[in-house]
Amino acid sequence: MFSTEKIFERIWGEEEFEVDNTVMVHIRNLRDKIEDDNKHPKYIKTVWGVGYKFGD
C-alpha cells in the first residue's frame, strides 16, 4: 500500500505535500486507461484513510 503523500514524494520529488487532488486525478486518469470497469477496479484500489493498493 502507498499513501498519497508517498506517491506525491516519489513522483514529483517534493517532500512538502499540500492537500490537493493531484494524486487522485492522476490515479483516476490511469484507471480510465487500464481498468475495464472504473467502479470495480482490479489494478489500482483505493484503501480509504491510507492511500492506494496496486494489484490484488
Number of domains: 1
* Unreliable spans: none
Classify the helix fraction into a percent range: 25-40%
Q: How many beta-strand segments?
A: 3
- The succession of helices and strands, N to C, reads EHHEE
Overall geometry? globular
- Distance separating the two termini: 11 Å
The neighbouring-strand order within the major sheet is 1-3-2
CATH domain class: Mainly Alpha
Largest sheet: 3 strands, antiparallel
Layout of helices and strands:
Blueprint: E1 2-3, H1 4-12, H2 22-34, E2 44-47, E3 51-54
Antiparallel strand pairs: 1-3, 2-3
Pfam families: Trans_reg_C
DNA-binding region: 1-56
Organism: Clostridium gelidum
Fold and architecture overview:
By secondary structure, the chain is an alpha+beta fold. It has a single domain, classed as Arc Repressor Mutant, subunit A. Helix content is 39%, strand content 18%. The protein has helices at residues 4-12, 22-34; strands at residues 2-3, 44-47, 51-54. The protein has a three-stranded antiparallel beta sheet. Strand 2 and strand 3 form a beta hairpin. The chain is globular, with a radius of gyration of 11 Å. InterPro entries: OmpR/PhoB-type_DNA-bd, Sig_transdc_resp-reg_C-effctor, WH-like_DNA-bd_sf. It holds the Pfam family Trans_reg_C. Keywords: DNA-binding.
